[in-house]
Write a structure and sequence with these properties.
The complex is a heterodimer.
Chain A: H1 4-11, H2 19-42, H3 47-59, H4 64-73, H5 76-111, H6 134-153, H7 158-165, H8 167-185, H9 187-190, H10 195-228
Helix pairs in contact in A: 1-2, 2-3, 5-6, 5-7, 5-8, 6-7, 6-10, 7-10, 8-10
Chain B: H1 4-21, E1 24-25, H2 26-36, H3 45-57, E2 61-67, E3 73-79, H4 81-109
Helix pairs in contact in B: 1-4
Classes of the chains: A mainly alpha, B alpha+beta.
Chain lengths: 235, 110
C-alpha cells in the first residue's frame, strides 16, 4: 500500500498552503484515500487496480490544490473578525467600562499613574509603584472567560481563544508602550530629570499593575476553556 | 443520473442533511450520500473537500480530529448552529423546486 500522506503532500506541493496547513490537508486527504483503498480491497478488487483508482481520484482535478486553498481561505477574514477581533474588542470595552465605573465610584486616586500625579515623583525614587484595583481584578477572570467563550463559539482555535481572552492585557501593554514613547519625547513629563531614572520604575510598575497582574486574572478565566477545547474522540 | 449543475447546487443540502444526524469524516460523508441517494449523488475527493472546506469557512460545519473505532485519525465534520439554521430554508427551497418540476413534468405528460 502506498504512503497516502506522501502522495497527498506531493499533490499539494505547488499550492499556497503553509507547511502546517499542507500537512493537515494532506493527512485528511490521505485518510480518504486509505478508506477508499480499504473499501475497494474489501469488494474484491485487485490491489494494483485499487491503488490506481485511489491515485486517479487524487489526480483527477488538476486544480485541486488552488481549489482547496481558496475554499479554506474564503472566509478567513470574517473568521478572524468573528473569532478574534469581535470577542477581544468586546471584552476589552467591557473591561474599560468596568474600570471607568470603578473610577467614577471615587477610586480615581488609586488609578492615576504616579508620574501623572503632581509632585508625587521624586527624581531619586526607585520604588516600584503598584496600582491594584481589586474589584476590577475580580471582574477580569469573567471577562477573560467571556472572550475565550465567544471565540470558541465562533470556531476559534485554542491559540485564538487565548488571544481573545487576553486582548485587554495586550491593549494595556500597547497603550503603556505608547505612553512610554511619548514620555521620552515630551520634556514636560520628564521635568528635566533623566528619563531612565524617572520613567523606568514607573513603567515597570505600570506593566506589573496593568498588564501582568490583570493578565493573570484574565488567565484564570481563559484556562478552563483551553482545557475543554481539546480535540475529542467522536467515534 | 442528475446533471452536474443540479448536483452542485444540491450538494450542500446533502452534506448538511447527512451530518445533521451525527458527525462523519469525509469518506463516510461521500459513501453515506451515495447510499442514501441510491447513487444519484456521487462525490469524489476533488468534488467533496473543496465543498467541505467552503462550508467550514462559512461556519456551517466544524471539523475536529478524532479516531475511528480502528484507531485511525480522521477529521470529523459536524453541523454548527449556523449550519442547522441554514439547512431548514435550503431544504424547503429544494422541496419547492422539485415539487414545481414534478408539476411541470406531470402537466406536460398529461
Amino acid at each position: 500500500m502506498p504512503d497516502w500522506v506522501r502522495e497527498a503532500l506531493r499533490r499539494l506541493a505547488g499550492s499556497k498552503f503553509s507547511a502546517e496547513e499542507r500537512g493537515e490537508v494532506s493527512r485528511e486527504l490521505a485518510g480518504y484515500l486509505e478508506d477508499l483503498y480499504d473499501a475497494s480491497c474489501a469488494n474484491g478488487q485487485n490491489e494494483s487496480d485499487t491503488i490506481q483508482n485511489a491515485l486517479d481520484e487524487l489526480h483527477r482535478d488538476a486544480r485541486l490544490g488552488p481549489k482547496l486553498y481558496r475554499a479554506r481561505k474564503e472566509n478567513s477574514m470574517n473568521d478572524r473578525t468573528k473569532q478574534f477581533w469581535l470577542p477581544g474588542t468586546a471584552t476589552m470595552l467591557a473591561s474599560a467600562l468596568c474600570l471607568a465605573v470603578l473610577e467614577f465610584a471615587q477610586l480615581r486616586a488609586h488609578f492615576t499613574p504616579v508620574w501623572l500625579r503632581h509632585g508625587a515623583t521624586s527624581p531619586h525614587s526607585f520604588d516600584l509603584p503598584l496600582v491594584l484595583n481589586w474589584p476590577w481584578l475580580g471582574v477580569l477572570p469573567f471577562l477573560g472567560a467571556a472572550g475565550a467563550y465567544l471565540s470558541r463559539r465562533a470556531g476559534g482555535r485554542r491559540a485564538v481563544q487565548a488571544a481573545a481572552g487576553f486582548f485587554s492585557a495586550f491593549v494595556f501593554l500597547a497603550s503603556l508602550l505608547i505612553v512610554l514613547v511619548l514620555s521620552f519625547v515630551s520634556g514636560d513629563l520628564l521635568g528635566g530629570v533623566p528619563a531612565t531614572r524617572t520613567l523606568f520604575p514607573e513603567f515597570v510598575g505600570a506593566i506589573v499593575s496593568w498588564v501582568l497582574i490583570p493578565g493573570v486574572a484574565l488567565l484564570l478565566g481563559v484556562v478552563p476553556f483551553l482545557r475543554n477545547s481539546n480535540a475529542r474522540h467522536i467515534v | 443520473m442528475i446533471s452536474s449543475n443540479i448536483k452542485r447546487g444540491s450538494a450542500e443540502v446533502a452534506i448538511l442533511s447527512v451530518l445533521a444526524d451525527r458527525p462523519l469524516h469525509g469518506y463516510e460523508i461521500a459513501r453515506r450520500i451515495e447510499h442514501e441517494t441510491r447513487g444519484a449523488l456521487r462525490f469524489t475527493l476533488a468534488s467533496l473537500y473543496p465543498l467541505l472546506y467552503r462550508m467550514e469557512s462559512r461556519g456551517w460545519l466544524r471539523a475536529t480530529w478524532g479516531e475511528t473505532p480502528a484507531g485511525r485519525a480522521r477529521r470529523y465534520y459536524r453541523v454548527t448552529a449556523a449550519g442547522r439554521k441554514k439547512l431548514a430554508p435550503l431544504r424547503k427551497e429544494w422541496r419547492d423546486l422539485f415539487r414545481a418540476l414534478g408539476r411541470l413534468a406531470q402537466a406536460h405528460h398529461a
